[in-house]
Design goal:
This protein is of the alpha/beta class. The chain has 2 domains: 202 residues, Periplasmic binding protein-like II (D-Maltodextrin-Binding Protein, domain 2, 3-Layer(aba) Sandwich), CATH 3.40.190; 180 residues, Periplasmic binding protein-like II (D-Maltodextrin-Binding Protein, domain 2), CATH 3.40.190.10. It has 19 helices and 12 strands. The strands form 3 sheets. Strands 1, 2, 3, 4, 10, 11 and 12 form a 7-stranded mixed β-sheet that branches. A 3-stranded antiparallel β-sheet has the order 8-5-9. Helix 2 runs antiparallel to helix 14, helix 14 packs parallel to helix 15 and helix 17 packs antiparallel against helix 18. It is found in: Cell envelope.
Length: 457
């Protein structure tokens, strides 16, 4: 879910002009078996959702669901092409960065009439998740499946050798002036090729063996697994409102100051350069191999590190300027393609996937935190059975320190503006370039659904 996924959105082909009209055929009404195509991008989640599909098919013997998986790099291109050809999957796992675009082109079925008719309780979900799928006109285009937050993944041996306890990790603080005790922590974890730590005399920042901290890329305008856990403690917000913000705050002095601090970690030798982290070997693979001591990552990646050679654990993001922690909370949800020939059957399936009956089973797999509150609590226990301190993620829901991911129909355009600017900053450029970038973003947002509240033509 997440930064890599968002950045990929900028390369997706534009939808063909002209909205498709939903076909409301009565296939299946006579008792004939209906087959639905259901797509997702995360192969790690397939076993959990296949379990739900098997149970659904037992309860609905006239409906068959074929689950198909595509990697993130192909997923949105395939769905877009399918919509153009009027052959998209009946149901697909959608992303908050994408559904606004599809909704704007009238490609998604509005679920609000079905939700009201069948009295689906939106209050069963974790706070804020259902609102992320609502349109400015009141329509709703997805039912939330799960949520995610960020934590700091760390190499247990390196942290123990540095003399830190779990209690120490939960009490780390951050500020943009000197980085607080969090910067001291990563400085001490950084070791040069002569065995000198980053906070010791004689440290050679140009010959580092192990970096105390690392990152995936520059973060564009999102920074979910980069700078957002720090910046969001300063009182900064992505936009004037969420969802459907119309004025974005990329020229805010707090944003500039935080990015300047973030880049300073590279200058000090505590963090690798942008060129290094984008050279082909991902940060997650590098921390698994022991090249980095810590890394901000999302809860969705715990399954990808549980068997790492270097034992990894998670700790919460540091306590920031406002005296609290912060994390982006994002959600994926099931959306229905408006051109489906089987809207009623597709709705029955989407509705089932958003029930405790399904989500409680998904929780047992410890892959995601399900969107339903009771199921989410079960997932915390399952994560802990797998050896992870799941409270590092769930603390943001429990303490209300999560910030819902920004929703707009123009995310691809935003990324195309912000990515080169944050790349330049993380390569040593001036943060004042954000002034012009912010102006361009806000000019783009004048055409968004949040302003016009109209379907795109």
């Amino acid at each position: 879910m997440r930064l890599k996924r968002l950045a990929a959105a900028s390369s997706i082909a534009a939808l063909a002009v002209g909205a498709l009209t939903a076909c409301t055929g009565e296939a299946g009404a006579s008792g004939d078996k209906v087959t639905l195509k259901y797509w997702l991008w995360d192969s790690a989640q397939m076993p959990a959702y296949q379990t739900c599909i098997d149970d659904f098919e037992k309860e609905h013997p006239n409906i068959e669901v074929n689950l198909e998986q595509y990697g993130w790099d192909d997923y949105w291109t395939q769905i877009t092409a399918g919509m153009v050809a009027e052959a998209a999957p009946d149901v697909f796992i959608d992303h908050t960065s994408q559904f606004g675009k599809f909704m704007g082109y009238d490609q998604l079925l509005d679920l609000k009439p079905y939700i009201e008719r069948d009295k689906v309780d939106l209050g069963q979900y974790e706070p804020g998740l259902a609102d992320m799928w609502k349109a400015p006109d009141g329509g709703m285009y997805g039912l939330p499946k799960d949520w995610d937050s960020e934590a700091v993944f760390y190499n247990e041996k390196m942290v123990a050798d540095a003399g830190y306890t779990k209690e120490d990790l939960w009490n780390l603080t951050w500020n943009p002036d000197d980085g607080g005790t969090f910067e001291k922590f990563i400085a001490h974890l950084t070791i040069d090729k002569n065995g000198v730590r980053g906070d010791e005399p004689g440290f050679d920042k140009n010959n580092v063996e192990t970096y105390g901290f690392s990152f995936n890329d520059s973060g564009a305008g999102y920074g979910q697994t980069q700078w957002s856990p720090f910046l969001l403690t300063t009182g900064w917000t992505y936009a004037d409102k969420n969802p459907w913000g119309t004025k974005w705050n990329y020229a805010d002095p707090r944003f500039k100051k935080t990015l300047q601090w973030y880049y300073s970690l590279i200058e000090k030798g505590y963090m690798p350069s942008l060129a290094q982290v984008t050279s082909g070997i991902g940060a997650l693979d590098s921390i698994k191999a022991g090249a980095y001591a810590t890394l901000v990552e999302g809860s969705w990646n715990t399954a990808n590190v549980k068997d790492a050679a270097a034992k990894l654990q998670v700790m919460p993001t540091p306590i920031g300027v406002n005296g609290k922690r912060a994390s982006v909370i994002n959600s994926v949800g099931d959306s229905i393609y408006k051109g489906t020939r089987h809207p009623e059957e597709a709705w029955e399936f989407v509705k089932y996937m958003a029930t405790p009956q399904c989500q409680n089973k998904v929780a047992e797999y410890a892959i995601v935190f399900p969107s339903i509150s009771e199921s989410s609590k079960l997932a915390v226990s399952a994560f802990e059975k797998n050896g992870f301190d799941a409270k590092a993620f769930s603390t943001h829901m429990e303490e209300g320190t999560g910030v819902t991911s920004p929703v707009t129909d123009r995310w691809a355009q935003l990324v195309s503006i912000m990515q080169p600017v944050t790349d330049e900053i993380m390569s040593g450029g001036s943060v004042d370039t954000l002034d012009q970038a912010a102006a361009r973003v806000n000019e783009t947002m004048k055409k968004s659904i949040g302003v016009t509240d109209k379907k795109k033509e």
